[in-house]
Amino acid sequence: MSDLSYTPLEQIPKIHATLKKTFNSQTTLPLQYRKNQLYQLARLVRDNKDAFVDALHKDLGKQKLEVVLQEVNSSVAMCIDSADNLEEWAKPEKPKVEPHKEHWNITVNRVPKGAALIISPWNYPLILTVQPLIGAIAAGCTAAVKTSEYTPTVSKLFADLFPKYLDANAYIIVNGAIPEVTTLLQLQWDHIFYTGNGKVARIISAAAAKHLTPLTLELGGQCPVIIDPSYDIKLAAKRILWGKVQNSGQLCVTPNHVLVTRDKQEELIEALKEVNKEFYPNGALHSSSTFGRIVNPGHFRRLKALLERTKGNIVFGGRFEGERGIEPTVVRDVPHVDSLLEEELFGPILPLVPVDSIDEAIQWINNHPHPLALYTFTEDEELKQKVLEKTNSGSLIFNDCVTQVAVHEAPFGGHGESGHGYQFSYYTFQTFSHFRSSLDMPKAAEPHLGFRYPPYTDEVIKGLEERLAAIPIPEVTSQNGNGHSNGYANGHSNGHA
């Protein structure tokens, strides 16, 4: 495959104008058009499965099973699911209103936002390009899709395939690096969807703010793991390590580090050793069919430098190969302030952070930015509820890692530093839709509207005040049932009536 050609900078405003023109022509508005484009996107992926497998192996060393299972099959399934459910999703909604408003024909209409910009990442360049595009197509938007220069083979493949399968005036690939993204961000889009890291997200947010453009940020963060000491440690180790080695740890929801009670660290280490041997009997770096590589030498050097500076002790792993190979590495006794906890690792390094108790683990999580995912291994229902109530994260997963991304029926998204907005299936459709409410006031309502017109009279004001006074407001009761709550009761607030 030839080298990736970047989109000429002077072409980008023309692409933007084409997408705006196509949207304004209402070409993308009919549901049947959207369905056809979704089916075409499914064909694009399925027909070229082998090409995507080869491209992802070339760019990331990714194995065929992971590509087919996690990217190809999921992409095709989501395209078809969205097309099959589109009519139901797009139906106008009649909200429940007060009885006197029932004849106003109040409606919530789901309408497309317009021309969207999708900036996709390198770590899962197929599924994380297709997933937001599905939502844009389903909602009736046009879209420019900026693919990653770090996965040039996949990006080149998308550039070749888009015009063969999709409406070339509605869905256009843009390839390039910083200059091309900068040019894209100078233009006014109707929605921006970015998947990546927080540093770049701040730049995109600032650019979007200039145009007051709504945006979705799917970021990441240091997704922690809590292990209840009473849980099956071998099973926890197996599921955690599996989550860590997916795509060589280059996944936004990969378990970043484990908060383990001190008395269980040794048992966890032995279990991780056993599991690693089961996964890679000949060593991960000699298992090219089941273990991938770091995306480029720059990220390889970053991970190597972090590992060299850690104050923890390497339990196993720590070996490197060439400029992209790092084997699964477990580091024990990592202190709360350490190089391995400075940033999202995005690699196959697993720090074990000893804590004295689960409460300390919860406090540790609350002292850090909200992660995209929080993993907790426990069968204790009270502990599950405690973690749910006392922590915050984009999603909360009990007793497994990573599999939340396979549940397309539930919303997926971050919170705070890990992003904002939602995606997956209906939720991606919502992201690219504007909920436009409408109201149609009947002529017959006029006799009931006389009170609102000038001149305003004391009689009308008195009637409104009487109506206000007649609204029942239940008394507030505290947990101890004394009728008072935090000092607010009986018309008093902070000592003032």
Automatic annotation (TrEMBL):
Q: Where is the composition biased (Polar residues)?
A: 476-497
Residue ranges of the region described as Disordered: 475-497
Protein's UniProt keywords contain Cytoplasm = no
Show the active-site residues. Answer: 218, 252
GO terms in the biological process aspect are: aldehyde metabolic process
- Cite the Aldehyde dehydrogenase domain residue spans from the record: 10-435
Determine if NAD is one of this entry's keywords: yes
GO molecular function per UniProt:
aldehyde dehydrogenase (NAD+) activity
What's the protein here called? Answer: Aldehyde dehydrogenase
